Amino acid sequence: MTIEHDGAATPRVVLLGRPGCHLCDDARVVVERVTRELGVAWEERSVDDDPELLRRYAEQIPVTFVDGRRHDFWRVDEARLRAALG
User: Fold this and answer.
1) What phi and psi, each to the nearest 5 degrees, are found at residue 40?
2) Neighbouring residues of 25: CB distance < 8 A, sequence distance ≥ 6
3) Of 4, 13, 19, 50, most Cβ neighbours within 10 A?
4) Does the N-terminal peptide bond of residue 19 adopt cis geometry, omega within 30 degrees of 0?
5) Residue 80 in contact with residue 72, Cβ under 8 Å?
6) Are 24 and 48 in contact (CB under 8 A)?
7) What CA–CA distances, in Å, run from 66 to 4, 42, 72, 78, 82?
8) 45-66 pLDDT, tens per residue?
9) Cα(33)–Cα(55) distance, rounded to whole angstroms?
């Protein structure tokens, strides 16, 4: 699953998760709030859609990336995400 927000071609934030993951749901709320307030594009991808992502990150979801670099896993710290995007 890929969800692009704000119509931007290259999202600054990528959230890796999977359906039914309560930590992913929590992370999505934080990512949505911060990116909306800062006007930053983001997308969500499911590790279930890509065998390599599943192999690499299944035990760490949700995983967030900012500007292509791994930022956080399991929990998204709102202040830390804001700082990374600032």
Assistant:
1) -110, 140
2) none
3) 13
4) no
5) yes
6) no
7) 15, 9, 9, 13, 10
8) 999 999 999 999 999 999 999 9
9) 29
Q: Report the predicted TM-score, pTM, of the whole model to 2 decimal places.
A: 0.86
Closest CA to 44 of 10, 85, 83, 5: 5
Alpha-carbon separation of residue 71 from 20, 59, 66 (angstroms):
22, 15, 6
The DSSP code sequence of 6-60 is: TT-SS-SEEEEE-TT-HHHHHHHHHHHHHHHHHT--EEEEEGGG-HHHHHHHTTT
- pLDDT number for residue 10: 84
Please tell me whether residue 70 adopts helix, strand or coil conformation. strand
Joined together, the tokens standing for residue 79 give 């202040």
CA 64 to each of CA 12, 44: distance values in angstroms, whole numbers, following the listed order: 10, 9
